[in-house]
Description:
about 280 residues; mainly alpha
Amino acid sequence: MELATTEDNLTVSWDGPDDPLHPRNWSNRQKWTNLLIVSAQATIAPVSTTFLAVADLAVAQDFHITSIYLPSLPVALYVLGLGLGPLYLAPCSEMYGRRIVYLVAFMLFTIFNAGCALAPDMATLAILRLLSGMAGSAGPVLGAGTVSDMFEPKLRGRAQAMYGLGPQAGPVLGGVIGGFLLEATGTWRWLLWIMTVASGLMSLITLILLRESYDHFLLEQKAKKLRKESGNNNYKVDTSSSVRPRERFLHSITRPLRMLFTAPICTVLSLYTSL
Length: 275
């Protein structure tokens, strides 16, 4: 354990560059296990984007809707949820670690999908689709950070390519798979039950196999353990440890908006992606 004394604080860091607890020093098996789980989450959520789009007419008939626009509302709100989710999931991952965010968000995604399958009316379906989009955005938004946690820059290309395949191909797969299943089952509700089963299984796999990879959070846990064992409360990770959680959360949650309007490259890329 390496400690650096700063005034009255003992700064906790890794036990050298080869510390086996550092995510970049994990075995390839553990790294790729983590990556496969995150990639699966990042694929399932975009698949759900167009999963229900092919069932617009079936939804309209089930709820006796005559409007040609209203049946598209659950799909539109789901996409909106995918956009809103990162505003709070990304800050939470920096405060509480990535694993707990992946796990809780995907469990909520499973619950909301089950609610969608049981929705008695269009209003309920639309609201639950918005919430499921917000919960399901964990995989697509946190995956790049998880790749960065585990892989050195020179080894990151292949891992990033595998992870990036899901968010790109997911909407295409969703339309194809959704159309086939709608034809086979005859009801749009089965599409959401199948999504519930898939996300439920992935939540279980996440619970069992996914390890925490955010290095700052791991060091926070290490410092917490040292404080408990020694009775010395001066063990800190860095100066940010003195910042209250509420202030850290507010700073993190406003960062995307600040970058959107103050960093020209972010503004241009955001506009390009949205169009």
